[in-house]
């Protein structure tokens, strides 16, 4: 589970007032569900994920990941989550097997456990045939699957994903959405940041709509359609954002 209460984060700007990326954000992402952070660029989605992942410290409020306060128990919180960023950040000259072995060591997994998990994920994500090729030679979608294997290697209970399908083709995006739904069905908490209301409607049980660092609406896609009297989450999004 992820639970934020009154969360705030800002960035100093030379000669000006701080940029308030998150203000009084209160939201929850539950186990066995895919939850979405939906909003335009600059609305605070990626900043929220970075705070949840321990890459940024909150300036006010609290954020708990799998029961651990990210400010007071950062190591325990990080051990509970897997992170998939928009740019996978894989070493260009290394292959998937080498990279997963390194990540397993960094996560403190025993060598035999890391090998077993790597073999399982390479099979499940259809990466066995390319697992010895340098990452620089892999397609964007394949590199994303390697990064997903890395995020899942230590069996985290929480998975954070930033714009996971933004650069994928239709088939790749559909396959990843199916995978994320299966991960949630296994009991994991899955939180995605997206600017695509169609993806959020297809995948998310709950959506938190952000604007200028604040949550302006929360609910299931059906609930958001109902309160705005619209036929789709895209229409509800525009209505709640105050856009024509």
Q: Can you give a write-up of this model?
A:
- The chain has 244 residues and is an alpha/beta fold.
- The chain has 2 domains: 2-80 and 156-240, Rossmann fold (3-Layer(aba) Sandwich); 91-155, no CATH class.
- Helix content is 37%, strand content 27%.
- It is built from 9 helices and 10 strands.
- It has helices at 45-52, 74-79, 96-106, 111-124, 140-152, 170-185, 197-203, 221-228, 233-240; strands at 2-13, 16-29, 33-38, 60-65, 68-69, 81-84, 158-162, 189-194, 206-211, 214-219.
- The strands form 2 sheets. Strands 6-7-8-3-9-10 form a 6-stranded mixed beta sheet, with helices on both faces.
- A hairpin with a 2-residue loop joins strand 1 and strand 2.
- Helix 3 crosses helix 4 and helix 8 crosses helix 9 (233-240).
- The longest helix is centred in the last third of the chain and has 16 residues, at 170-185.
- The chain is globular.
- 41% of the residues are buried.
- The mean pLDDT is 92.
Summed up, what is this model?
Helix content is 37%, strand content 27%. It has helices spanning 45-52, 74-79, 96-106, 111-124, 140-152, 170-185, 197-203, 221-228, 233-240; strands spanning 2-13, 16-29, 33-38, 60-65, 68-69, 81-84, 158-162, 189-194, 206-211, 214-219.
């Amino acid at each position: 589970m992820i639970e934020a209460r009154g969360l705030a984060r800002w960035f100093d700007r030379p000669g000006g007032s701080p940029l308030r990326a998150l203000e009084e954000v209160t939201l929850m992402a539950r186990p066995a569900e895919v939850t979405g952070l939906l909003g335009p660029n600059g609305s605070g989605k990626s900043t929220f994920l970075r705070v949840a992942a321990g890459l940024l410290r909150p300036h006010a409020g609290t954020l708990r990941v799998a029961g651990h306060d990210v400010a007071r128990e950062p190591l325990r919180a990080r051990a509970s989550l897997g992170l998939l960023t928009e740019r996978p950040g894989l070493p260009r000259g290394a292959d998937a097997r080498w990279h997963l072995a390194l990540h397993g060591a960094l996560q403190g997994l025993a060598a035999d456990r890391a090998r077993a998990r790597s073999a399982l994920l390479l099979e499940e994500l259809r990466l066995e045939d390319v697992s010895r090729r340098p990452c620089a030679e892999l397609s964007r979608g394949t590199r994303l699957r390697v990064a997903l294997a890395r995020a899942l290697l230590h069996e985290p209970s929480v998975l954070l994903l930033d714009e996971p399908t933004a650069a994928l083709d239709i088939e790749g995006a559909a396959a990843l959405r199916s995978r994320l739904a299966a991960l949630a069905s296994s009991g994991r908490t899955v939180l995605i940041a997206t600017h695509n209301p169609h993806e959020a409607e297809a995948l998310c049980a709950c959506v938190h709509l952000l604007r200028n660092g604040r949550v302006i609406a929360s609910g299931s896609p059906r609930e958001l359609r109902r309160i705005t009297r619209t036929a789709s989450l895209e229409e509800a999004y525009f209505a709640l954002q105050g856009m024509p």
